[in-house]
Amino acid sequence: MPVIALNAIAIDPRNPNLFAVAGSDEYTRLYDVRKYKWDGSTDFGQPTDYFCPSHLIGDDQVGITGLAFSDQSELLVSYNDEFIYLFTQDMGLGPNPVPSSPLSACSEPSEMGLDHSAMSASAMEADEKAIPQVYKGHRNCETVKGVSFFGPKSEYVVSGSDCGRIFIWKKKGGQLVRVMEADKHVVNCIESHPHTTVLASSGIERDFKIWTPKAIDKATLPTNIEQIPKRGLFRLLSFAAFNEDDDYNFSWWWC
Predict the structure, then answer these.
(1) Do 111 and 182 fall into the same domain?
(2) How far apart are alpha carbons 237 and 102 in whole angstroms?
(3) Which UniProt keywords apply (predicted)?
């Protein structure tokens, strides 16, 4: 079994027996602690499920930097040099998906007892499952970035970016609703308060910032985020007033 460097661990708040881990390959692995037996007869080392967008299966250029569970047991996964994806429990690939990319990189499919048709079949099976919601616009290339849900019912998705901004999307539909300057360099960590509408952010700067939805002025949003086809390159082009009153306008202080 290949060694995967881990970047993120998340526990399902609705079922603490389940936790997900992810790191230097394309898969998020879901484990169930109930499979552990004190007498040593256990298959605890084997995931009960895997998650990955079908187009990233076998891609040895991507890894995962952040994970988060919602209160509805949805799984949020942030890829480096790619996007953020939202999985529901029925989108899993099962306990035996295509071998992960580090193993594939070291061996030919025939050496592993597999052929290209088997790998293609697994990718097709993944395609047939429901497609995960995707969140685009930020840049996750330079550092390990977290990802989080936000709102009393996890209605929003939040992430930092290499451009020094916080990005906020509506969970349902993936619409980008806020982009906020938060660091002169990179925003790495975003955490939401468990009981109230407050965000904490940190990055390369030495301070951390607390955000509350109490700003007097209307928030601004890039009206055109040009996504260059080359992986990992994004440009923010223009800003205009955003007038949806049902979304949060943030003010902040730093500590």
Answers:
(1) no
(2) 37
(3) Repeat, WD repeat
